[in-house]
Every structure is written in C-alpha cells, then in structure tokens.
Specification:
The chain has about 425 residues and is an alpha/beta fold. Helices cover about 30% and strands about 30% of the residues. The chain contains 12 helices and 17 strands. The strands form 3 sheets. Strands 3, 4, 5, 6, 7, 8, 9 and 10 form an 8-stranded mixed beta sheet that branches. Helix 5 links the parallel strand 4 and strand 5. Helix 1 runs parallel beside helix 5. The protein is elongated, with a radius of gyration of 25 Å.
C-alpha cells in the first residue's frame, strides 16, 4: 500500500472517530474505505484485545477523552516501557488520535514536552481536539512523515511509536531519523510488528500482516536489529508481546543512542568523514606509540580493511568536526571466529581528558555485543599508558606480551595483547 493510500485510510479512520464511531484495532477487513464506516461483525474483537491492539493495550485510560480511545490503533503500550521522566522531551512517531501523546504528557509533567508527528491532517485535528479536551498544554502536533521528521537533531530525550514503523516503506530512513533527533543517551521505545527470521509459508505471513493492518510488511527480528545498529543504536532488545500466528508478533523494541560528554555525539562513521578520520589517525601515528604504521593509508585501503558495521566517530556538535573514531576488522574468515574482531581507537590529541575515548569504547563494546561479537582483541605498546588505562576501565585484560614483534623507526618494540570477552554473548 502506497503512503498516499495509508494516509487516506487513516484520515478516514480519524473522521470516523470524530463522528463517534469506534475504530479501535487494525483489522482492515472491518473498515469500509468507501464510506468510512465499520462492520462490527467482520472483525474478531476478542483476538484484537488478546493482541493488545487499540485501547486494549492500556490500563490507565480513565481520564482520556473518548475520541483518543476510539482512534487508538496501536499494537501495545510503548509509554509503559519508555522509562519517561519528569522534564523529558518526547516524540511520538505516527501519533494518530494522540493517546500515547496524552499519556506521555502526564508522565513528563509541566516541565516536559511531547511532540506528536502524523502524516494525516485529519488525525492531527483529532489529536489536537483530544489534547484540548484533556486540558493538556505541554504537547505539540506536527505534520510530516516519520522518514523526514520536522525537528532539528538532538532535540528529544525519548522516541516512542505504536505500531507505525511497520507501515513505512523506508524503515531504515525512519530509524535513522529517530537516531538523529535523539540527544546522546536518548531512548528509543516502540511497539511494533515483527516476524520470525524463518517463516516457512511467506504467503500465510503476508496474509496475517494484512489482517492486522501491517500493510508495508514487517521486519524480521534480525532485520530490525541490523537496521537499528546501522542507524547507530546500541543496547537493542526486541521482546515479543503477542503472537498473531504464522510467525508474526507484536513486540516491544528498545534501544539507546550512545551517551557522551555534552557538546559531542557518537554516530556511525560515514564515507564523508574520510579526511577527518584519516587526520585523527595520522595525529595518533605521529605520537610514535599508537601503531607500527607511520602513515595513514588512503581511505579505500582503510575502509576495505575494516568491517562496514562497527565503525563509529565522535563528532563535535558545534562544528561537526570528527575528533575520535573506532573501527573493527575481521580476525579470520573461518566460521569459528565469526564473533571475534580486532579493533582500533584513536582520539584527537586536542580532545583528550574529556571522557570521549571511554564513551566511544563503551558504545563500540555495546554495539559489538548487539552484533553477536563475543571477543574483541587488539595490541597496545607498553608505553601507551593512556590506552592501557582506557581499555582496562572498559573491561579489557592483558593476556601477555609479544616481545620484539617488529621494528618501529629502527627500534624493536614489544606489544601487549589485550582482549575483552563478552559476558552477554
């Protein structure tokens, strides 16, 4: 179903809710798009309740306007797991009639704020009316798409969504936008539809997705995790909450944007960062204690020797300057070493003693565990006391010394072999 069709469908749902009809649930068979009416006999209300669709997924709705309940179309209760705090700024992707916005507004209090984003003008009108009826003033409803959020970067503390991301035809862009608008340390907590990684009958899966209104198709658990990692998230958990049959589930999806010192951001490394990454690399090599290498390679050589994922930078948010980077290389192509990587981390010498290296290494470790890596290893010169201290603080241990491994500027150098074994993978 094209975006225009989805927007039109939900606009009809909003207009139906405005006239007093209950549109709770996502069973598309119950909705007659020709006149905006519903056939109560064509949907299985019991199964929708069991799947936590609509208002059935909430426990604290007593003070909400009827219009918000009638237009509740989600598949769970993201507010219950979003860990909202007083003063938080929240963004609800695909806010619909506003039920999650209103519930979030209660939790963040008068010092917080909740944005609701929706592509349907009718849904926005309904949501604004519901907010006015509820007497809620710390909300703002925005017109736009979840693939192009009309907010500046690093402006919200929490992104929530209720069974909307599965409707996007560009889920990678949606998750990248969620990452962009979150402040460092911000949380991502959504209800969504996911599918098992192995579903024998794809036709049955598609029919089940259509039955519950997942018109653009769901991501598998592995695909969802990979897109979140590619966007830059860490600490990823995907927890099924209801089984709709044929390998399709409602689920709670949670993740975090890596925290870092104020004024900086940890994000995935991009090809556009090439010159700055190589400059930081060269400055590290010039110290004489970073590597046996003496000259940073060309970007093509650097990039081809490292995994496309598990590469991150610290950027100064005021200047966009890259001031640190970390990346991983495969140790071996043998399957037994699939979860073993070797890493390098470099911090611009002008940006030391700010906690940037520790934050970057912690983010890298978390992302590695999300990616199924169980061992991270590297080599450090004994003279590089700062690097050794950093790695020890992040859970690395020294395995031993490789003596006189090679000559560096004509001098034989020893290398300490360090390793971190994941307690989680």
């Amino acid at each position: 179903m094209a975006r225009e069709e989805i927007v039109d469908r939900y606009s009809r749902l909003a207009r139906a809710a405005m006239t007093g009809q209950s549109v709770t649930g996502r069973d598309s068979a119950s909705f007659d798009a020709s006149d905006g009416s519903f056939d109560d006999g064509s949907s299985d209300a019991g199964s929708m309740d069991a799947g936590c669709f609509g208002a059935a997924g909430y426990e604290d709705t007593a003070a909400l306007p009827d219009g918000a309940l009638r237009a509740s179309l989600g598949c769970g209760n993201p507010v219950a797991v979003a860990d909202l705090h007083e003063g938080d700024v929240v963004l609800d992707l695909g806010s619909g009639g506003g039920i999650d916005v209103l519930l979030s507004a209660r939790r963040v209090g008068p010092t917080g704020k909740v944005y609701g984003l929706d592509a349907s003008p009718d849904m926005l009108s309904l949501a604004r009316d519901n907010a006015a009826q509820a007497g809620v003033t710390n909300t703002e409803f925005l017109h736009g798409t979840i693939e192009h959020v009309p907010l500046p970067g690093r402006t919200v503390d929490v992104v929530i969504s209720n069974c909307v991301i599965n409707l996007s035809d560009d889920k990678a862009a949606t998750l990248a936008e969620a990452f962009r608008v979150l402040r460092p340390g911000g949380r991502f907590g959504v209800s969504d539809v996911v599918s098992d990684d192995s579903v024998p009958d794809q036709d049955l899966r598609c029919r089940t997705e259509a039955r519950i209104g997942c018109t653009a198709g769901s991501l598998t658990v592995t695909e969802y995790r990979a897109l979140l990692l590619n966007a830059g998230f860490t600490g990823i958990t995907i927890t099924p909450t209801a089984d709709h049959g044929d390998g399709v589930h409602s689920a709670i999806v949670q993740a975090t944007k890596p925290p870092v010192t104020p004024g900086f951001e940890i994000r995935p490394m991009r090809d556009a960062d090439a010159d700055q990454v190589l400059n930081v690399y060269q400055l590290g090599l010039d110290t004489g204690h970073a590597s046996f290498e003496t000259t940073a390679p060309a970007w093509e050589t650097f990039s081809s020797a490292r995994l496309r994922h598990l590469r991150y930078v610290v950027a100064d948010t005021r200047t966009s300057r890259v001031v640190a980077w970390v990346a991983a290389s495969r140790v071996s192509t043998r399957p037994v070493y699939a979860g073993v990587v070797e890493h390098s981390i470099y911090v611009h010498p002008d940006y030391g003693s700010r906690g940037l290296g520790r934050a970057l290494l912690d983010a890298f470790v978390a992302a590695s565990e999300d990616a199924g890596v169980w061992t991270i290893q590297s080599g450090v010169f004994p003279e590089n006391a700062a690097s050794l201290a950093l790695h020890r603080a992040a859970g690395f241990r020294v395995l031993g010394t490789r003596e006189r491994v090679g000559r560096h500027y004509g001098v034989w150098r020893d290398v300490l072999m360090i390793e971190r074994r994941s307690p989680a993978v």
